[in-house]
Amino acid sequence: MNATVESAASSSIQCLFLFIFLVISSFAVPSCRAKVPAVIVFGDSSVDSGNNNQIRTILKSNHKPYGRDFPGGQPTGRFSNGRIPPDFISEAMGIKPYVPAYLDPKFTIKDFATGVCFASAGTGYDNSTSNVLNVLPLWMEIVNYKEYQSRLRKYLGVKKANKILREALYLISIGTNDFLENYYLIPGGRSRQYPVAGQYEDFLAGIAENFLRELYSLGARNISLGGLPPMGCLPLERTTNTMEGNGCIGKYNDVAKEFNGKLQWLAIKLGMELPGIKLAFSNPYDPFLEIIRKPSAFGFVNAAVACCATGLFEMGYLCDQYNPFTCEDANKYVFWDSFHPSERTNQLLSENLLKTSLAPFL
Question: Is 59 exposed, middle or buried (0-12, 13-18, 19+ CB in 10 A)?
């Protein structure tokens, strides 16, 4: 009997020492080094983490039910029920689980040193696109970035700050609004000036090239240039396509594919021209379309309408907490509101990009 007690006591002591060793080891082993020192974001609502909250525009998502699945369950200004692609990419890079908005007063340069977002929902390459809903034009995102550079150099010193700016991963996601909220929506505007959508694509590609060259001149070397999604399949567009049974609008998808081809060629061209640049074209079109066409294969039950409200046309202030039709589980829906993917879709698209175009940065 005593031998049994002694054996049990000895076993307990061994377990205790093993537990203590594991706890000490967990503090002693340094964390894995991040793949890049920071993630820096430019673009529109697909990547805006809350900058529109701080400007005078009606295009905001600073109210419930936006953000209901974000840590803390509160709206942040992200056009999603939860996180958006830069958040997932930042986490995968070993940095942090979300990228803060530059204009958000809750954050400081200490927070921005490892990642920052300059994007503005509703904007585009074309300045006239940002005028539609009075949001930040792309050139203003660059102005804010230059200010950020100065603040970062004061905070960390010139040498260390420049190293971060040079080695950071720059994510760019923009262009959908130029077509859906400007070219095809505003009569007598760009569609009159550029009678063929292909000509407008060339105009936008020219702006994209100038933007990339300016980023390069400011020190950026690791850049992901995002393409357009199958924008004809967004619930908002399908709702208006009554003549074809509310299916995807093929013309819009064709334009997205054409423009993506021009962006891909631009990435190849600048990759050959600019010394030291690593410029990847990140194309969400095919993986996104596959999710839309085969939602059940990815665990979704609905790809035609969105989770919020009726799911047909609501976004921004029309997607509010008082609508009784909002779904209970956004993970079952490809889209959160009529224009933006759900958090689950954002995660799947981010994982695909990390395995493909973003793999060289890992």
Answer: buried
Decide if 31 contacts 40 (C-beta within 8 A).
Answer: no
Tokens of 236: 């908002």
- The number of distinct structural domains making up the chain is 1
Is 337 part of the annotated catalytic residue set? yes
The per-residue pLDDT for 23 is: 35
Single out the catalytic residue among 48, 87, 178, 337: 337
Is 350 among the domain residues? no
Under-70 pLDDT residues of the chain: 1-33
The parent domain of residue 125 ranges over 34-284
136-to-103, 232, 308 alpha-carbon distances in Å: 11, 25, 26
Please tell me which residue in 340, 342, 350, 357 is annotated as part of the active site: 340
pLDDT at residue 33, as a whole number: 63
Q: Is residue 309 assigned to a domain?
A: no
Would residue 83 count as lying in a domain?
yes
- Render 107-174 in DSSP notation, one character per residue: --HHHHTTEEE---TT--SSHHHHHHTT---HHHHHHHHHHHHHHHHHHH-HHHHHHHHHHSEEEEE-
Q: Using one digit for the tens of pLDDT, what is the confidence trace for 143-154?
A: 999 999 999 999
Q: What is the rounded distance in angstroms from the CA atom of residue 175 to the CA atom of residue 211?
A: 13
- Average pLDDT across the chain, whole number: 91
- Is 45 an active-site residue? yes
pTM for this model (two decimals)? 0.90
